[in-house]
Amino acid sequence: MVPVLSVLLAVVHVLAVIPGAAEDATAGNHQEKWVQVGGGLFLAVSLQAPGGPQVAALRVFSHGHWAVDGRLGRAGVRSSLGGLSASPDGRVHAVWVDYAGPGHVWYAERGPWGWSPGRQLSPGPRYAGFPSVAAGVAGVHVLWYAVRPSELTRHGAAYEVVHTWRSQGGWSAPQVVSWGLPDALNPSAAAVAESVHAAWYQWDQDRYRVQHARWHRGRWHPSEPISPPDEDASGVSLEGAEDGGLHAVWVARTRAGPVVLYRRRSANGRWGPIDRLGPGDHPVVAESQRSVFVAWSHGGRIRLRVGREGRWGPLVDLGTGEHPALSSTSPVYVAYTRRTPTGWEVVVSMVSASRDGRWGAGWWLPLAAGVAYLLWRVRRAAVRRAAIHGGEPA
């Protein structure tokens, strides 16, 4: 029996074009920038404003309209790198970097009566940035990387991944979770069931490798490397799977250039094989209806592939743009930043996946044999009927 091969094809439809964006409007592949709460779909972007770009939460509607739901950054203060997450109680949680001074991580939430005032989460006088937020049944968790002076690095500073979480007693004191050698950057976070997963890339004396750690019942388990030991890695992004697993994508820095890699963690904690999806940078991953969507930028254009059950569909070119952001909704939405003759804009598109079934090689042999056998049976039956009724066979 010849098996039927099935390929997932991505169909993309431009939904909205949002003008007045900042150059880094959708930057931050380590962040989740889309959330859906009830009938509301929200997207975090940076828009042009007096005094510099400002992080805003947009509400995007299925018919293509959009509106600014809330300006999160402070008026007259530059802000960027906005990320979102939604908790089971229907609240939306946002983080971003406020650049009044060296840069600090700020937080706000959207409840039934709108957005709360922003508050600073990162302590101290030194820089903190690249935050990621994950909200779930285990509470609201925020991670970022902070800078401290160090003689162990040539640039005189060490980057450390810091974590804080909010429970009924308020926000916990920030603690370092990137144990080991210094230089740990750009954490990505995802809430899965009663756990929170985090990943970042960290120096191991030879190269940067992706590290993964899991928070469960009030403590972090030791981190483990999940990228190959012979390749520099960066730009990791996480997304929880519907079955309790985890999706991870990152960039391998090879001699031939950056390559996007994908790996899946099962619900029982086992990491699967690594898939190489294609050349590019700034990858993001999402899941919808058991299909995996991965988008990234390469050569100033947006690339997309869809996978299911270990098989990946062909590469899809979405057009000119940078810094894609995907939603884990149905349908899936992708937003990215595109340059125009007068500035920058954000493009929002819907993505759907369809199956293209094809027979394997040599499909015509069994089909021809089946047709010949069927014709023989029909002819034989006709001859027998003619003999029974005394007619002349054709």
Folded structure, characterized:
By secondary structure, the chain is mainly beta. 6% of the residues lie in helices and 59% in strands. The protein contains 1 helix and 32 strands. The strands form 7 sheets. Strands 6, 7, 8, 9 and 10 form a 5-stranded antiparallel sheet that branches. Strands 11, 12, 13, 14 and 15 form a 5-stranded antiparallel sheet that branches. Strands 16, 17, 18, 19 and 20 form a 5-stranded antiparallel sheet that branches. Strand 17 and strand 18 form a beta hairpin.
What are the key terms here?
mainly beta, disordered N terminus, 59% strand, 32 strands
User: How many helices in DSSP terms?
Assistant: 1
Question: Can you summarize the main beta sheet?
Answer: 5 strands, antiparallel
Stretches where pLDDT falls below 50 for ≥5 residues? 1-6, 357-394
Q: What distance lies between the first and last C-alpha atoms, to the nearest angstrom? A: 35 Å
Rg from C-alpha positions? Answer: 26 Å
Number of strands: 32
